[in-house]
C-alpha cells in the first residue's frame, strides 16, 4: 500500500490561520433539485396523508404495502427482536441503555419560582414535549446506538409518546435497531423513511400522529425535509460530517492514537480527524502507526480518503497553543491525551464533548460511557450543545402579580409603553393602578 | 365608528377544530425575490467586508459614511444618551433592567459532574458564548424594552462581548434605545442594519467582529438573513406575529380585558388577540367595551384590522374546556383572568408565558415584571421556550475514564461497535482493555 499523505501544518507559521480555515471549510452545497423534490413530497403528504406515504414507501423502499396499518410494527415484534439477538449484544445494549439513562437523569431541568415582598410570584414552569418523532435510518447504516442516544433522553424528559420511523427497504429491518427501540421504550414504530416520514410526523396522517419535534440523523432528503418543516415542528440540528480533534503530549502509545483517528475516519470520506502535538517526532511516530495499521482495517479505503483529504497533523509550540487551536476549531469530539487532562481542560471553551486522559477513547463515549453521542459539528460547539434531556423539555414563564405589585409595576410599564408610543399597553397597565 | 366585527366560535360545535385551525393558520409566504437579494448582500459582505457594509448603509439608510470607523458609536455617546432622557423614563428603564436581571439570575445553568465507583468522572461543563450580536430595529419601531430583554440575559450568562447593531436612517437614532443599551451593558454598537448588518456579524469584517450567535427582531430582510446565516452562527427563533389568548371566567372588568386585547392588537394588523369565556353574556360585555373604547385609541385602525381579521371570541362549556383549547393554541401570551389562577394553570401545558390573575396585565410582563418578552409564537410553545440566560450558555460533555472504567466500558463498546461493523471503533476501545 502506498504511504498515506496527510496535511501537515505548523501553528507557529504566519500562514496558519488561513490554512486552518481552509482545512475546516465545509460547505454543504444547496441542491435545489432535491429541495424541490422534497417540497413536492411534503405537499403531497399534507394533502393525501396515508395514501401518499404508502405510495412513496412502495416506490422508494421497494415494498408492497396495501394499507397504512401494515406500516406499524407492534410492541411484540420489538420484544421478539430483542429476544432474537445474541446474549452478548443484548447485554451490551442493556449496559449502554442503563448508563445513558443514568447520565441523562442529571440533565433534567426543574420548575422554579420565587415570591417578592409584595406577594408577586415569578417563575418558570418546565414541561416535557407531548409527542416526539425519532428518525432512524434503515438499511446498511442502521445504528442501534443512535436509537438509544436519541430515545432515552426523550423518555427521561417525560415525553408522552415517542414515535420512531425507520424505513424497511425491501421489507428488511435490522433486529439490533428494533432491540434498541425496545430497550429505550419507544412507544410506536412506523416502517417509513425519507422525506415522506418527516412530512408525516410534522403534519400527521390518518395513521401517523403529528409530533411537536423531530430528532435523529438521516440522508440529504431527510435533512432537507427537516429544514423545511422546521417551524411547524421543532428539530434537532442538521449535522455536518463527524470530526475528532486529538491533542497529545507525545506520551500515549502512537498505535492507540492512530486507531482513534481511524475510528473517526471510518465513518465516511468526509469525516475529519486532526491530531495536534508539540512533539514533531511523536507526530512522525503516529504517521508510522497509521501506515502500519491501515492495511489491517476493514474500511481502509474510506479511512485513507478521509485522512488524506480532510485529516491533518498540526505542530504547536506548547499545549497552551494547542488549546487555542482547539478553541478556534470548536470540535465535535476533543480527545485530551495528556498527563493532567482535568487541569488542561480548563483552557477549553468550545467542544461538543471532551474525552480526558489516555484511557478515554472516543469510542467509549460513542456507545456507552453515558453522555450523548449526538454532538454539535462544524464549529457549532461555539453556540450549541450535545443532545440532552433539556431538548425534550420546554419552559413557560409564570407571572402572578399581587394587587400591590401590579400598582408598582404598572407605573413603570406605563412610562415605558408611552415612550414606545404603545398606548393600549400603557392604559392596560394603568387600569390596574 | 361602525361596530367591530369579530369572529365568534363555539368550542362545543363539531366544526370547532377546523374553524380553530383556520383561525390560527399563518403562512409566511417565502418571497424568493427577497431571498435572492439577501443572498447577494451576504455574498458581497463576505467578499468586500467594510466596503460593502458602508455602501449598503449609505444606500438603504440614506447616510454619507466614508469610513468604517464612523459606524461605531463610542460608550460616551451611550452614556450621554442616558443622561439626556427625562428622569421618569431613566428611572423606569432602571427599574425594568434591575427586575429583568434579577429574574435572569435564576435561569443560569451550572456545570456538574459525578464520579463512579471505579474513578470514572462524567459531567457537563457550562460556558457562556464568547461574543453575541444583538439586532435592534431602527427608525419608528425602536423599542428600548427589546434592548433590555435581549441584552441582559446575555450579560448575565457571562457573554464576553455583546455587539449591538442598529440602523440609523438619515443619521437619526432613538436616544431611549441607546440609553437602554447603556443600562444593559452592551459592549460595542455599530449603526448598521438590514441584511448587511446580519452578514457582518455572521462573518465579520475588518471593523465589525464575527459573533457566535445573533439575536433580536427585525423586518423580513433581517429575518431572511438570519435564516441564511444559521449554521455559520446560532440564531434565536424567527418570530411570527405576536399573539395573546385570554381566558376569563367573566368576573373581570370588561374594559380591562378589552384593553388587554387592544394591547396585543396595536402591535400590527397581523397580531392575534383571542378571548375565551364560558360566559356568553360576558363576551358580549367585552365586545361592548371594545366598541366604546376603540374610538379613544391612538392606533384605532391597526387595532380594528387586527381584531376583525385575526381576533376571535370563543365560548366554551367550562374552564376545563378553555384549558384544552389553550393547549391546542399553545399561545405566546396566555392571560388567566380567573378566580384561582394557580390551580387553573396546572392544566396548561403549552404557552410562552402565563399571566395569572386579574391584576397581571400582559403589558406588565412586556416591560418590567422580569420574565423575558421574547417568547415562542405560532404555536411553537409546543416545543420551545422564552429567550433566557440558557440561550447564551452552552454545554460540553466531560468523560474521564479511569483505567478500570475503560476496561469495563471497552468490553461493551467493542461488542456494540462490531455489531455496527465499525471495527476501528472496536479496536480503539480494545486497546484500552
Automatic annotation (TrEMBL), chains A, B:
InterPro entries assigned: Ald_DH/histidinol_DH, Histidinol_DH_CS, Histidinol_DH_monofunct, Hstdl_DH
Superkingdom of the source species: Bacteria
Recorded metabolic or biological pathway in which this protein acts: Amino-acid biosynthesis; L-histidine biosynthesis; L-histidine from 5-phospho-alpha-D-ribose 1-diphosphate: step 9/9
UniProt GO cellular component terms: cytosol
Role according to the record: Catalyzes the sequential NAD-dependent oxidations of L-histidinol to L-histidinaldehyde and then to L-histidine.
Keyword Amino-acid biosynthesis annotated: yes
Residues that, per the record, bind substrate: 242, 264, 267, 333, 366, 420, 425
Residues the record lists as binding NAD(+): 135, 196, 219
UniProt-listed Enzyme Commission number(s): 1.1.1.23
NCBIfam families for this protein: hisD
HAMAP family, per the entry: HisD (MF_01024)
Protein name, as recorded: Histidinol dehydrogenase
Organism listed in the record: Methyloglobulus morosus KoM1
Family stated for the protein in its record: Belongs to the histidinol dehydrogenase family.
Annotated residues for binding of Zn(2+): 264, 267, 366, 425
Catalytic reaction(s) noted: L-histidinol + 2 NAD(+) + H2O = L-histidine + 2 NADH + 3 H(+)
Active site per the UniProt annotation: 332-333
GO biological process assignments: L-histidine biosynthetic process
Obligatory cofactor(s): Zn(2+)
The entry's keywords: Amino-acid biosynthesis, Histidine biosynthesis, Metal-binding, NAD, Oxidoreductase, Zinc
Molecular-function annotations in GO: histidinol dehydrogenase activity; NAD binding; zinc ion binding
Cofactor descriptive note: Binds 1 zinc ion per subunit.
Amino acid at each position: 500500500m502506498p504511504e498515506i499523505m496527510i496535511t501537515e501544518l505548523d501553528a507557529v507559521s504566519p500562514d496558519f490561520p488561513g490554512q486552518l480555515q481552509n482545512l475546516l471549510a465545509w460547505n454543504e452545497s444547496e441542491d435545489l433539485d432535491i429541495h424541490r423534490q422534497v417540497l413536492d413530497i411534503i405537499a403531497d403528504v399534507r394533502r393525501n396523508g396515508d395514501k401518499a406515504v404508502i405510495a412513496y414507501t412502495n416506490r422508494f423502499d421497494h415494498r408492497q404495502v396495501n394499507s397504512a396499518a401494515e406500516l406499524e410494527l407492534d410492541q411484540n415484534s420489538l420484544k421478539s427482536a430483542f429476544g432474537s439477538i445474541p446474549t452478548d449484544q443484548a447485554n451490551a445494549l442493556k449496559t449502554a441503555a442503563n448508563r445513558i439513562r443514568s447520565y441523562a437523569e442529571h440533565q433534567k431541568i426543574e420548575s422554579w419560582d420565587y415570591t417578592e415582598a409584595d406577594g408577586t410570584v415569578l417563575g418558570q414552569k418546565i414541561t416535557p414535549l407531548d409527542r416526539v418523532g425519532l428518525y432512524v435510518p434503515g438499511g446498511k447504516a442502521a445504528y442501534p446506538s443512535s436509537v438509544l442516544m436519541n430515545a432515552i433522553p426523550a423518555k427521561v424528559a417525560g415525553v408522552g409518546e415517542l414515535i420512531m420511523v425507520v424505513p424497511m427497504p425491501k421489507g428488511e429491518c435490522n433486529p439490533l435497531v428494533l432491540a434498541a427501540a425496545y430497550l429505550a421504550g419507544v412507544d410506536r414504530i412506523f416502517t417509513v423513511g425519507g422525506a415522506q416520514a418527516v412530512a408525516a410526523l410534522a403534519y400527521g396522517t390518518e395513521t401517523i400522529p403529528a409530533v411537536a419535534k423531530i430528532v435523529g440523523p438521516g440522508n440529504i432528503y431527510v435533512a432537507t425535509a427537516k429544514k423545511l418543516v422546521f417551524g411547524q415542528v421543532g428539530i434537532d440540528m442538521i449535522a455536518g460530517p463527524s470530526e475528532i480533534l486529538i491533542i497529545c503530549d507525545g506520551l500515549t502509545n502512537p498505535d492507540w492514537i492512530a486507531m482513534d483517528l481511524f475510528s473517526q475516519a471510518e465513518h465516511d470520506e468526509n469525516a475529519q480527524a486532526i491530531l495536534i502535538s508539540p512533539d514533531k517526532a511523536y507526530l512522525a511516530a503516529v504517521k508510522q502507526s497509521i501506515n502500519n495499521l491501515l492495511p489491517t482495517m476493514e474500511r481502509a479505503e474510506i479511512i485513507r480518503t478521509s485522512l488524506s483529504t480532510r485529516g491533518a497533523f498540526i505542530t504547536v509550540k506548547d499545549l497552551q497553543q494547542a488549546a487555542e487551536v482547539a478553541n478556534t476549531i470548536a470540535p465535535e469530539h476533543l480527545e485530551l491525551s495528556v498527563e493532567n487532562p482535568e487541569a488542561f481542560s480548563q483552557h477549553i471553551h468550545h467542544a461538543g464533548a471532551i474525552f480526558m486522559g489516555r484511557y478515554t477513547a472516543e469510542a467509549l463515549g460513542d456507545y456507552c460511557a453515558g453522555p450523548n453521542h449526538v454532538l454539535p459539528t462544524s464549529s457549532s460547539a461555539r453556540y450549541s450543545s450535545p443532545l440532552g434531556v433539556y431538548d425534550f423539555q420546554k419552559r413557560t414563564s409564570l407571572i402572578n402579580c399581587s394587587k400591590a405589585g401590579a400598582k408598582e409595576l404598572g407605573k413603570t410599564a406605563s412610562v415605558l409603553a408611552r415612550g414606545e408610543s404603545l398606548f393600549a399597553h400603557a392604559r392596560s397597565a394603568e387600569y390596574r393602578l
